[in-house]
């Protein structure tokens, strides 16, 4: 009997451990690599987690702090006061000023991300996927998927390699899809409490459809919109949706192609397909739109641009000037890379005010892309601040969600076949079977964990000039979320006034990101 009891207890132990991991909060295991702050190390059995978040009852608020000093989503609670505390700085919630609704946040399942995730043991893989997609994780709901290869692949390929195959009779998904990305997406979906919003982007058409006969460099589709090459390229998108549907993966949206301006540059070093805004517009009107409407996926959204926001509002004006475009197009996809060159109000704000019926959505961003600040920096708090600043700025200018680039990279920032190495919120160390959650991971978490789909941005006003960057939201259940970035090296004391509940007195630590949340009924 004792032997039987011991065996039963042993059999229960692994199950008990899993339950312990998935409830409550676990603390960060910090590692310092000398870049100003820390990463949190995770393995198959342990990872820090804020857990499933439940707000305290009316009259109290929850606070979540991450900072350069090493706090990571550190949770605390406080009282909401009836009277003002007399703080010099007051942030007032203005609930009747209503703006855009949130669609979601996420990252990209590139070939490189899949390779890195699968380089870990099964238990550590599950841990990593849980960190992004499960209820105790940070609530990613958007996953961008490259259609065939991009620079974050180990080789150049498309799904239609047979020349002159205009009917796409030989269209075939790659092993990268069937053996890596699709199984991981299915696992992510199984962990997520809600259906994931999948977003597809193509980097290049097959070489035989292009003017330069190559996947890289300066090249666009042969012929004209309405012609056989343009029609075949539209059908390529439909075939992609059909093949993924066979694996129970359906797409919320796809873009008209990654960075169309790249394919118009001479000697561009990796996969690209050039479009002018007029060519993109006409291809959608004459080929892609009708093909999608006639397919089994007429509800899939089409997003134009998928390139840097400094191309706005010009690109939107060219496309949306044609009344036929509105039949097919739902939104505008933007990348973050050259954001500092043009004010958000001039690009995003103007586009929204001119064309409010089309939504704006962030589809790609990563740290470590700049030649002067390249590759992986384990523990860089500056990069976390770059993320948070850009997300707040985008949200405050009508963007409905923000998608990071690779979900996971190795310690060199790859693999990448052109050695275009960058950083990622999760860095994998396969030799030790661990992964590091970067400060940028927590930057994303302050938004993705708390801004549920359907949350609505509302007004927030400051009583005086302040270094704080803020954005306020009312969630579908009526609770309020206020996200505050303090990039200054000073602690800033302030109070929040929500006319519905009262006053919250608190501080923003130096070099910190703070999410406050409270119920209103």
UniProtKB/TrEMBL annotation:
<dbReference type="GO" id="GO:0010605">
    <property type="term" value="P:negative regulation of macromolecule metabolic process"/>
</dbReference>
<feature type="domain" description="Glycosyl hydrolase family 30 beta sandwich">
    <location>
        <begin position="454"/>
        <end position="516"/>
    </location>
</feature>
<dbReference type="GO" id="GO:0008422">
    <property type="term" value="F:beta-glucosidase activity"/>
</dbReference>
<feature type="signal peptide">
    <location>
        <begin position="1"/>
        <end position="18"/>
    </location>
</feature>
<dbReference type="InterPro" id="IPR017853">
    <property type="entry name" value="GH"/>
</dbReference>
<keyword id="KW-0378">Hydrolase</keyword>
<dbReference type="GO" id="GO:0030163">
    <property type="term" value="P:protein catabolic process"/>
</dbReference>
<protein>
    <recommendedName>
        <fullName>Glucosylceramidase</fullName>
        <ecNumber>3.2.1.45</ecNumber>
    </recommendedName>
</protein>
<dbReference type="GO" id="GO:0007040">
    <property type="term" value="P:lysosome organization"/>
</dbReference>
<dbReference type="InterPro" id="IPR001139">
    <property type="entry name" value="Glyco_hydro_30"/>
</dbReference>
<dbReference type="GO" id="GO:0042176">
    <property type="term" value="P:regulation of protein catabolic process"/>
</dbReference>
<dbReference type="GO" id="GO:0005102">
    <property type="term" value="F:signaling receptor binding"/>
</dbReference>
<dbReference type="Pfam" id="PF02055">
    <property type="entry name" value="Glyco_hydro_30"/>
</dbReference>
<keyword id="KW-0746">Sphingolipid metabolism</keyword>
<keyword id="KW-0443">Lipid metabolism</keyword>
<dbReference type="GO" id="GO:0032006">
    <property type="term" value="P:regulation of TOR signaling"/>
</dbReference>
<dbReference type="InterPro" id="IPR033452">
    <property type="entry name" value="GH30_C"/>
</dbReference>
<dbReference type="GO" id="GO:0006914">
    <property type="term" value="P:autophagy"/>
</dbReference>
<dbReference type="GO" id="GO:0008203">
    <property type="term" value="P:cholesterol metabolic process"/>
</dbReference>
<comment type="pathway">
    <text>Sphingolipid metabolism.</text>
</comment>
<dbReference type="GO" id="GO:0042391">
    <property type="term" value="P:regulation of membrane potential"/>
</dbReference>
<dbReference type="Pfam" id="PF17189">
    <property type="entry name" value="Glyco_hydro_30C"/>
</dbReference>
<dbReference type="GO" id="GO:0006680">
    <property type="term" value="P:glucosylceramide catabolic process"/>
</dbReference>
<dbReference type="GO" id="GO:0016241">
    <property type="term" value="P:regulation of macroautophagy"/>
</dbReference>
<dbReference type="GO" id="GO:0004336">
    <property type="term" value="F:galactosylceramidase activity"/>
</dbReference>
<dbReference type="GO" id="GO:0005765">
    <property type="term" value="C:lysosomal membrane"/>
</dbReference>
<dbReference type="GO" id="GO:0004348">
    <property type="term" value="F:glucosylceramidase activity"/>
</dbReference>
<keyword id="KW-0326">Glycosidase</keyword>
<dbReference type="InterPro" id="IPR033453">
    <property type="entry name" value="Glyco_hydro_30_TIM-barrel"/>
</dbReference>
<comment type="pathway">
    <text>Steroid metabolism; cholesterol metabolism.</text>
</comment>
<keyword id="KW-0732">Signal</keyword>
<dbReference type="GO" id="GO:0046527">
    <property type="term" value="F:glucosyltransferase activity"/>
</dbReference>
<feature type="domain" description="Glycosyl hydrolase family 30 TIM-barrel">
    <location>
        <begin position="102"/>
        <end position="451"/>
    </location>
</feature>
<comment type="similarity">
    <text>Belongs to the glycosyl hydrolase 30 family.</text>
</comment>
């Amino acid at each position: 009997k004792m032997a039987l009891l011991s065996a039963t207890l042993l059999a229960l132990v692994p199950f008990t451990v899993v339950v312990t991991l998935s409830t409550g909060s676990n603390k960060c295991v910090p590692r310092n690599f000398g870049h100003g702050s820390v990463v949190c190390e995770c393995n198959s059995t342990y990872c820090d987690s804020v857990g499933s978040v439940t707000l305290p009852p009316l009259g109290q608020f929850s606070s979540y702090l991450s900072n350069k000093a090493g706090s990571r989503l550190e949770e605390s609670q406080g009282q909401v006061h009836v009277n003002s505390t007399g703080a010099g700085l007051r942030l007032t919630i203005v609930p009747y000023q209503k703006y855009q609704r949130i669609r979601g946040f996420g990252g990209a399942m590139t070939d490189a991300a899949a390779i890195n995730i699968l380089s870990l043991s099964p238990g550590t893989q599950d841990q990593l996927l849980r960190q992004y997609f499960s209820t105790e994780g940070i609530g990613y709901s958007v996953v961008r998927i490259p259609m065939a290869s991009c620079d974050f692949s180990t080789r150049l390929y498309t799904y239609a390699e047979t020349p002159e195959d205009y009917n796409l009779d030989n269209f075939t998904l790659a092993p990268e899809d069937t053996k890596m990305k699709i199984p991981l997406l299915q696992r992510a979906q199984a962990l997520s409490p809600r259906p994931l919003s999948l977003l597809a982007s193509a980097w290049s058409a097959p070489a035989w459809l292009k003017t330069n006969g190559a996947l890289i460099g300066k090249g666009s589709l042969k012929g004209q919109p309405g012609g056989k090459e343009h029609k075949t390229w539209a059908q390529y998108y439909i075939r992609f949706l059909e093949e993924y549907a066979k694996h129970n993966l359906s797409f919320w949206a796809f873009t008209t192609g990654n960075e169309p301006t790249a394919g118009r540059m001479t000697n561009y070093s990796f996969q690209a397909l050039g479009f002018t805004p007029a060519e993109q517009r006409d291809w959608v009107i004459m080929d892609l739109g009708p093909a999608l409407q006639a397919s089994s996926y007429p509800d899939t959204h089409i997003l134009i641009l998928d390139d840097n926001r400094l191309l706005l509002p010009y690109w939107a004006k060219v496309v949306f000037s044609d009344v036929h475009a509105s039949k097919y197009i739902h939104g505008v996809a933007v990348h973050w890379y050259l954001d500092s060159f043009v004010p958000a109000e001039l690009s995003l704000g103007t586009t929204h005010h001119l064309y409010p019926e089309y939504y704006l959505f962030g589809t790609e961003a990563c740290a470590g892309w700049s030649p002067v600040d390249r590759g992986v920096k384990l523990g860089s708090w500056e990069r976390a601040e770059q993320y948070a600043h850009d997300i707040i700025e985008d949200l405050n200018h009508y963007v409905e969600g923000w998608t990071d680039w690779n979900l996971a990279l190795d310690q060199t920032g790859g693999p990448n076949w052109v050695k275009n190495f960058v950083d990622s919120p999760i860095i994998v160390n396969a030799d030790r079977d661990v992964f590091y959650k970067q400060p940028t991971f927590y930057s994303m978490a302050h938004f993705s964990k708390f801004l549920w789909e359907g949350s609505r941005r509302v007004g927030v006003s400051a009583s005086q000039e302040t270094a704080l960057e803020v954005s306020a939201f009312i969630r579908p259940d009526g609770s309020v979320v206020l996200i505050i970035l303090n990039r200054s090296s000073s602690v800033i004391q302030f109070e929040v006034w929500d006319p519905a509940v009262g006053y919250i007195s608190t501080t923003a630590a130096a070099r910190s990101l703070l999410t406050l949340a409270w119920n209103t009924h």
